[in-house]
Amino acid sequence: MQQALAQLATVKNGTSKQILDVVNNQTTRLTQSPIGYLAVMDDTEQELTMVGWSNAAMANCKMIDKPIVYALKDTGMWGDAVRERKACITNDYKGLVKPTKKGYPAGHVDIKKHLNIPVFEGGKIVAVAGVGNKATDYTQADVNALTQFMNEAWKVMKEKI
Fold first, then answer.
1. Half-sphere exposure of 8 (CA within 13 A, CB side)
2. What is d(CA 15, CA 50) in angstroms, rounded to the nearest whole number?
3. Hey, CA dihedral for 37, 122, 48, 154, is it positive or negative?
4. How far is CA 123 from the centre of its chain?
5. pLDDT of 99 over the 90 cut
6. Of the candidates 36, 19, 35, 27, which has an alpha carbon nearest to the alpha carbon of residue 1?
7. Distances (CA, A) of 97 to 93, 102, 135
8. Cα torsion at 106, 109, 111, 116 (round to 10°)?
9. Sheet containing 69-71, strands listed edge to edge, beginning at the edge strand earlier in sequence
10. Cβ–Cβ < 8 Å for 93, 114
11. Residue from 17, 23, 19 nearest 37 by CA
């Protein structure tokens, strides 16, 4: 965690791209995940705007049309962190039976495991951070690390994005 926070401190006065690059790199590093993403929530908590993906997620995603803005009602399980207002762990995506599991479009990165968390400010969800495909199962330790880091990252990001 110290290393992640130190990296974040180096870009606190940087551009939004520099900050988002560090945030995505550190969330995946902290959780030992090959892929990650970050979405910002609108004021009504009904719309998510994707603001960053890890390099591996972008390199492996072959979707022709990559939407940036998503209505919460149309999201699959990655919107559950908002709907449930808590971290959501899925360690067996293929075996998951849940109404919000909608699959993913052709060309999307294959999801085996997934963890995402809501980021709160003043009781409102302001962002969602997610990671995927860790070699081992996600645990509460991953939730804690991701939450702690993102709480600090949001303080740096919120004025820039």
1. 21
2. 17
3. negative
4. 19
5. no
6. 27
7. 9, 10, 21
8. -120
9. 69-71, 47-53, 35-41, 124-132, 114-121, 88-90
10. yes
11. 23
Tally Cβ neighbours within 10 Å of residue 92. 10
CA distances from 25 to 3, 50, 159 (A): 12, 16, 20
Q: Which secondary structure element, helix H or strand E, spans residue 60, and what is its range?
A: helix 55-60
Residue type for position 157:
M
Condensed to tens digits (0 to 9), the pLDDT of residues 30-62 reads: 999 999 999 999 999 999 998 876 555 554 544
Both structure tokens of 79: 């919107």
Among 147, 105, 110, 111, CA closest to 127: 147
pTM, whole model, 2 decimals?
Answer: 0.85
